[in-house]
Write a structure and sequence with these properties.
mainly alpha
Length: 103
């Protein structure tokens, strides 16, 4: 039984030592969110014309079709990025969260 706790501590330390590099973590968050935003943009704008949407939501602002697609894509990307980021935060190993911070 006492050995079980030591093995758990060693596994947590190994998880921290084998943590992903920052660039891999950023890619793991950005790429799926970019892909999901692309799909969401294609599906959404397959049914909705951005000029009509602009007329309904902000009638005083003239929005071109290209500008509407651009704004829509970045809106979808922000939503899917926040979802991917939250998933990454929840999946971090406990040892990474609990380790003491260096100053």
């Amino acid at each position: 039984m006492a050995n079980e706790g030591a093995g758990s501590a060693r596994m947590d330390a190994a998880e921290v030592a084998g943590a992903m590099p920052l660039v891999q973590t950023v890619g793991a968050v950005l790429w799926p969110s970019f892909f999901a935003a692309c799909v969401a943009t294609m599906v959404f704008f397959g049914f909705v014309d951005p000029t009509e949407l602009g007329t309904i939501t902000f009638p005083q602002v003239q929005v071109s079709r290209e500008w509407g697609y651009t704004l829509g894509f970045f809106m979808f990307w922000a939503c899917t990025f926040s979802s991917s980021l939250f998933t990454w935060i929840l999946l971090r190993p406990r040892a990474e969260i609990d380790r003491p911070q260096r100053r």
